[in-house]
Design a protein that fits this description.
This protein is an alpha+beta fold. The chain folds into 4 domains: about 70 residues, no CATH class; about 120 residues, Alpha-Beta Plaits; about 350 residues, no CATH class; about 35 residues, no CATH class. It contains 23 helices and 11 strands. Strands 1, 2, 9, 10 and 11 form a 5-stranded antiparallel sheet that branches. α9 crosses α13, α16 packs antiparallel against α17 and α21 runs antiparallel to α22. It is flat, with a radius of gyration of 43 Å. It starts with 9 loop residues before the first strand and ends with a helix. About 5% of the residues have low confidence. It is a multi-pass membrane protein. Essential component of the vacuolar proton pump (V-ATPase), a multimeric enzyme that catalyzes the translocation of protons across the membranes. Required for assembly and activity of the V-ATPase. This is V-type proton ATPase subunit a. Belongs to the V-ATPase 116 kDa subunit family.
């Protein structure tokens, strides 16, 4: 892993790839992920590039792969990831894969079409058999009686135009949802000149499209007259009914039914053979498709990179440019030599001078990835800018723990994160698709430190599920107070609240060894004491954190060679910040160390207000001799630093621009061809935050210096910093507010749930039975409210303190990541 404190050195390289070995070279680079290629054909349309035909062939194959994948999923099969590491196939294998894929797709389409056709025919035969079954009986007018013929009516109609009418039949099947509407419409349209019989099939039939079992309604309609028959046929067509021929004679129906059953058996045998052949084809697809998809994806990626290369004048090699880490240049040279050895001409790579800001490369591991992600979410750092991530590893969990300090809650969070860390190598944990789980799993090491630091601050606050613990003996003695103050029974009866006076000898034995004395949990002024302590602690931590951010800016100025910023920016910033708010921290620490508990306590807030008013309060004693002079001097020096911060850098840049002599134009880039491992292509001083450092030094014309723009930029920076020192210091008071809120929520939850449960159990005498649901409710509420909701709130506030109050003191975050060409995403 490279340095975490600053991004690695990145060089712009030029690759000369022989045409015959270009594909192999780029493929090997994709396996290693060393180079981020630049598009040298940005002005060329995507349809006019050299390898656009190969890219289209790969895209057509991907479409075919999508069809095959859907067919496999439709059959209820799963596609397993390929085993081992697959390399990009040679270009000559593309035709073979395409032919085999087309053949498989064609076979699948044919077999699937035959299967659908056979299922539809079988479904029709089954419906026909159900219609001809014994579910329907012929109406009386159509059945023979007393030896008469079928067509002999019981009553001879009188002569007239309807004397030749006979009974006809329409039989078929309809979906159950449409049966009632069909029957109603038939009756209304035919005005009762029909007899309809609807029966539900005894067994559900398999749907030929979905394959799911479904019931059908069979019907038999007898009617008189041709016009009525035409109406019936039109209505059944509108309802998409399956209409079948109906034989009036019983013997004919039985014979037809036997033929239908025989045909159904034959179709089922053919359908079984078809499905077995289909399963064989799907088995081949299931075996061949996963490796083909990976290989074609890699091949397409290689051709897309080759489309970004330019062609030499002789058309014998391809020219590519890209960013590569300086430490990876030997490996890059070796890979190109190995890949182009079979072509007879070795690929060449050399560094070229950069005119653009290089990308940022910071290598991370499983521990530092989550902390680097917090920083990158604010903005990717500029090239070789100081990286806040190493310091965030400590400061972020600590500031979170200040707001979340509780031994019990921190221990639960620590154990949850520890379980994820111990199970991180299990495949089931890695491949989990739940989005919330993946979020927690990705930040498992962050949660681990957050829980550990919360346990630490919980011991400082002496809180474990809002209860104080007595690890060491208390520094306060009630016995000494009782013996020396003469507390009597009458005094104790009249005074429910007792005061421990530290001025009485033996009452205050000394400070508690670690954290808050547990006796404060019994005091009525417990909240007031913790408010004062946590508020002052928040100011101290905030000023220290901001000062550390300003100091980190010194490393940026030194690294980029901007020495004038040390005197004209960093020094005024530290003077303003420490002269005002650093002095406030000094007053807090001085009062803690040197003002006795028995002496009158001066108000630091009044002193700080009088500091800006250049006045004094008679009722507020001084903390040390000469305090007024020191305060006045600090205010004057802090205010004097503002014009230096505002005008220093613009005036210096203007003076530097005037005295700068023109550069000689004859200097060329010969020194850049000296060797691949030379680092003389560009100076890191060219990528600072100065307005005058807007490009690669030594290889471009000077930009026009505009004093008004520099003044405007510096004025915005000055106003933002000076006002930010005030607002940011106040913003750190959220540490006090969130810590107080967390402690009070814990206290309320304990008082309203566990304390009531313990009282109830004591009264009823069944403590064990009562405490089971009480403790379950307490555990659920603790996890839901105090761990999840309060934890998320503290996390967001700690995130804001790092992004706004800390990182804006030195971190620009206006860079972009190095995104090397790699096949790792394709394999995932």
């Amino acid at each position: 892993m490279g340095s975490m404190f600053r991004s690695e050195e990145v060089a712009l390289v030029q690759l000369f790839l022989p045409t015959s070995a270009a594909y192999t070279c780029v493929s090997q680079l994709g396996e290693l992920g060393l180079v981020e290629f630049r598009d040298l054909n940005a002005s060329v349309s995507a349809f006019q590039r050299r390898f656009v035909g190969d890219v289209r062939r790969c895209e057509e194959l991907e479409k075919t792969f999508t069809f095959l994948q859907e067919e496999v999923r439709r059959a209820g099969l799963a596609l397993h990831p390929p085993e081992g590491r697959l390399l990009a196939p040679p270009p000559r294998d593309l035709l073979r894969i395409q032919e085999e894929t087309d053949r498989l797709a064609r076979e699948l389409r044919d077999v699937r079409g035959n299967q659908q056709s056979l299922r539809a025919q079988l479904h029709q035969l089954q419906l026909h058999s159900a219609v001809l079954g014994r579910g329907h009986r012929l109406p009386l007018a159509a059945t023979p009686t007393d030896g008469l013929l079928e067509r002999t009516p019981l009553l001879q109609p009188p002569g007239g135009p309807h004397q030749d009418l006979r009974v006809n039949f329409v039989a078929g099947a309809v979906e159950p949802a449409k049966a009632a509407a069909l029957e109603r419409l038939l009756w209304r349209a035919c005005r009762g000149f029909l007899i309809a019989s609807f029966r539900e099939t005894e067994q559900p039939l398999e749907d030929p499209v979905t394959g799911e079992p479904a019931t059908w309604m069979t019907f038999l309609i007898s009617y008189w007259g041709e016009q009525i028959g035409q109406k019936i046929r039109k209505i059944t067509d509108c309802f998409h009914c399956h209409v079948f021929p109906f034989v009036e004679q019983e013997d004919g129906r039985l014979g037809t039914l036997q033929q239908l059953q025989q045909q159904s058996q034959e179709l089922q045998e053919v359908l079984g053979e078809t499905e077995r052949f289909l399963s064989q084809v799907l088995g081949r697809v299931q075996r061949l498709l996963p490796p083909w998809r990976v290989q074609i994806h890699k091949m397409k990626a290689v051709y897309l990179v080759l489309n970004q290369c330019s062609v030499s004048a002789t058309h014998k090699c391809l020219i590519a440019e890209g960013w590569c880490a300086a430490s990876d240049l030997p490996a890059l040279q070796q890979v190109l030599q190995d890949s182009s050895s079979e072509a007879g001409v070795s690929a060449v790579v050399h560094r070229i001078p950069c005119r653009d800001m290089p990308p940022t490369l910071i290598r991370t591991n499983r521990f530092t990835a989550s902390f680097q992600g917090i920083v990158d979410a604010y903005g990717v750092g500029r090239y070789q800018e100081v990286n806040p991530a190493p310091y965030t590893i400590i400061t972020f969990p600590f500031l979170f723990a200040v707001m979340f300090g509780d031994v019990g809650h921190g221990l639960l969070m620590f154990l949850f994160a520890l379980a994820m860390v111990l199970a991180e190598n299990r495949p089931a944990v890695k491949t989990a698709q739940n989005e919330i789980w993946r979020t927690f799993f990705g930040g498992r090491y962050l949660l681990l430190l957050m829980g550990l630091f919360s346990v630490y601050t919980g011991f400082i606050y002496n809180e474990c599920f809002s209860r104080a613990t007595t690890i060491f003996p208390s520094g306060w003695s009630v016995a000494a107070m009782a013996t020396q103050s003469g507390w009597s029974d009458a005094f104790l009866a009249e005074h429910p609240l007792l005061t421990l006076d530290p001025a009485v000898s033996g009452v205050f034995l000394g400070p508690y060894p670690f954290g808050i004395d547990p006796v404060w949990s019994l005091a009525v002024n417990h909240l007031s004491f913790l408010n004062s302590f946590k508020m002052k602690m928040s100011v101290i931590l905030g000023v220290t954190h901001m000062t550390f951010g300003v100091v980190l800016g010194v490393f940026n100025h030194v690294h980029f060679g901007q020495w004038h910023r040390l005197l004209l920016e960093t020094l005024p910033e530290l003077t303003f910040l420490l002269g005002l708010f650093g002095y406030l921290v000094f007053l807090v620490v001085y009062k803690w160390l040197f003002i006795a508990a028995t002496a009158p306590a001066p108000s630091i807030l009044i002193h700080f207000i009088n500091m800006f008013l250049f006045s004094r309060s008679p009722t507020n004693p001084l903390l040390f001799p000469g305090q007024e002079v020191v305060q006045s001097a600090l205010v004057v020096v802090a205010l004097a630093a503002v014009p230096v911060l505002l005008l220093g850098t613009p005036l210096f840049l203007r003076w530097q621009h005037r005295r700068r002599s023109p550069r000689p134009a004859g200097r060329q880039l010969d020194e850049d061809k000296s060797g691949i491992l030379d680092s003389s292509d560009a100076s890191v001083a060219g990528w600072g935050s100065d307005e005058e450092k807007a490009g690669c030094p030594g290889d471009q014309e000077e930009a026009e210096f505009v004093l008004s723009e520099v003044l405007m930029h510096q004025a915005i920076h000055t106003i933002e910093f000076c006002l930010g020192c005030i607002s940011n210091t106040a913003s750190y008071l959220r540490l006090w507010a969130l810590s107080l809120a967390h402690a009070q929520l814990s206290e309320v939850l304990w008082a309203m749930v566990m304390r009531e449960g313990l009282r109830m159990g004591r009264e009823l005498g069944v403590a064990a039975v009562v405490l089971v649901p009480i403790f379950a409710a307490f555990a659920v509420l603790t996890v839901a409210i105090l761990l999840v909701m309060e934890g998320l709130s503290a996390f967001l506030h700690a995130l804001r303190l790092h992004w706004v109050e800390f990182q804006n003191k030195f971190y620009l975050g206006s860079g972009y990541k190095l995104s090397p060409f790699t096949f790792a995403e394709e394999e995932d």
